[in-house]
Specification:
This protein has 404 residues and is α+β, with helices and mostly antiparallel strands. The chain contains ten helices and 18 strands. The longest helix has 24 residues, at 3-26.
Length: 404
Amino acid sequence: MTTQMLKDGLDRHIDDILATRRFLHENPEVSDKEFKTAEFIRSQIEAAGLTYRTRGTSTVAFLEGSKGPGKTFLYRADIDALPMTEDDTNAGGNKKSAVSKNPGAAHTCGHDMHTAMALGVMKILAELRHELSGRVIFCFENGEETYVGDNPDTDDSRSAGAILKLLEGEQIDACFGIHVYAGLESGKFSLDPGSRMAGINKFEVTITGRSGHGSRPDQAINPISAAAYAIANLGSAWVNEIDVTKTVTLSVCSIDGGSTFNIIPDQAKFTGSMRFFDTAEGRKAEDALRRIVGGTAQMLGCTADITTGFMGASVSDAQMAARFSASVAKACGEGALGSCPPWFASETFNYYLDKWPGALAFLGIHNPDKGLTAPHHNAHFEIDEESIPVGVLGTLQIIADFLA
C-alpha cells in the first residue's frame, strides 16, 4: 500500500471526517450514557462492512485484510464527553467549528476528534482492504473520563474493562492511541518514548468519630478536626518522604462533613488524587497516605476507612514509538514530528500498554493565532481542525507500515 493511496483516501473522506467531528461535538454524551454516540459509531461500522462486538456503549470493530493472514494492530479511541457546559468563545472570540447543543455535556477534552479520526481511518482502510494483510481492531471506548483508576479485572462492564473483555483471547501485536493535546503546537505528532501520561491513585477517605452537641465538644469525637489534621499532615509527608527526583502530586479536591453550625457529625469525608510517572513511587505515596491518615484518625479517637483506585502511567514502548515516528515522517514529513514533556493528566490507554507493545501519541491542537489556547476540561477549550489530516494520515501510515 503506497502513501499516495492513503493520501487519496484521506482526500476522499476529509469532509466526512470533519462533519463527523462537528456532529459528535454538537451532540455530546457524558460517560456511560453515550447511547446515541454508540448508535452512530455502530452505523458507521456497518456501512463500512465490518463485524463488531459490543459491551454497554463500548464497541470493537474488526477489519480483515484481503491479502491473507498477518499481524493484528489495535487502534483505540475514546468517545465520552465531560459533565460541564461549554462556552461558545475561545481566547480569540466566537468558536468557528462547533459548540455543544447539550447543556451540561461538552467535548472539552477532544474525544470527539479521537472518534472522528478513528472512524475516518476505518473507512479509508476498509476501502483499501485488498491491499492489507492481517487485521485492524478499532476500539471505541466509553466512559474513559470516569474509569481512570478502576480495575478492569473486576470491573469489566464498561470503559477499558469492557474493551479488554471483548478482546479476550485475541492475539494482538501492537496497540496505538492518540490524545489531542493543547500543550503541543497544532499539527505536530509527538511520539516520545517512555511515560507520556501520569499514573493516578484516586482516594476516598471516611473518618468516623462520634456526634454530639456543638456546645460540648468534650462529649463528642469530632471527625472534622481529624480530617483537617490528616490533610495537613499529608502535606508534611510529601515534603519529607517523596523522592524529590520523582514527582508525585497530591490534590485534595473535596471535603464534606456536617450539616449545621451546632451539631458535631459522626463522619467527615474527603477525596482527591495523586499523579505520578514512577509506579513504585506512586505505591510508596499510597502507603504514606494510609499510614498518615489512619494514624492521625486514631490519635484523635476516630477511625479511617480509605479506598483507592490505582492505575500506572501510560508508558510508550521505545521501539514502537520510534517505528511509528518513522511512519509519520514518511507520510507527513519530518516537520510533522514534535516533542513535549509528559502530561500529568491520566489515561486508560495505560491498560492497553500494560498488555501489548505500543505507543500513545499526542497530536497538537495549540494555535494562538486562532485563539485555541485553553487547556483541556475548560469551557473555552477548542481543537484545531487543521491538525485532523495530519492525525489521520499519520495513523494510516503507521498501520499500513506495521501490517506490511
